[in-house]
Each structure stands twice: as C-alpha cells, then as structure tokens.
Amino acid sequence: MVKVIKNIVLVLAVMFAVSTVGNAQNIPDYVIVSLKTGNAQQLSKNFSDNIELVILDDDNVYSKAHAQQVIADFFKKYPPQDFSLIYQGGKEESSYAIGNLQVQNEKFRVYFLVKTKNGSSQIHQLRIERQTK
User: Is the pTM for the entire model greater than 0.70?
Assistant: First the structure.
C-alpha cells in the first residue's frame, strides 16, 4: 500500500512540475533509443555519478558502473521490444518523462529524471515498474 501511495505521489509531483512550467527540455534521443534497444552501456554513459534506480522491488542509489550492471541484468531478463514516451516535460535544467517499455509478454512503466548542467544531460533517477492493468 505504501508503494502505491509513493508511486501516486511521484506521478502527481511530475505532473505538477510539468504543468507549472512552459519551457521544458526534451528528453535526449539517446535515452529513448537505449531503452528501445536494451543498450545498458549507451544508457549508462549519461548516468550521474550516483543514480537512484528503482527496478521492480529493488530501490537503491548506485554508482554509475554498478547501475549499468543492474540495468544490463534487467535487459537480459526482460529484452525490450519497444519503448514509447507517454508524457514528458520539466523546466529549463531538468526533464521528467514517463514511458512504456514493452517486453515479450509484459509491459513496464518507466519514469526518469534528466538534469542538464553545463550543457551535459545526466540521468539522475530511473524507475522501472510492472505496469498494472
């Protein structure tokens, strides 16, 4: 129950943040392509030095290298067939997005936060959760 409430609060916070600003940055293409193809190495190139990953029931802050391995393990177990953005937005230096990751017999909801600093976009948070019907 607490996890459901936490997810609802996250979604509402993202929607509020997006609705209150008009100059949102787009999510970089490499993020979309990496999720579509299951390329953990490409995706992790722009992880922040410490990234919060929530992958199914595992919620932790990882180093960039360790996070790449966690994502690679996820993609091995659940090879992506497609990824599509549902919603994106944010403000000048940070972008939020929600998308659907399609694997063979299942869909996952993906949430991520990308922050831009000194012209460089970095992923600070990535969440992959089973999509409920």
Answer: yes
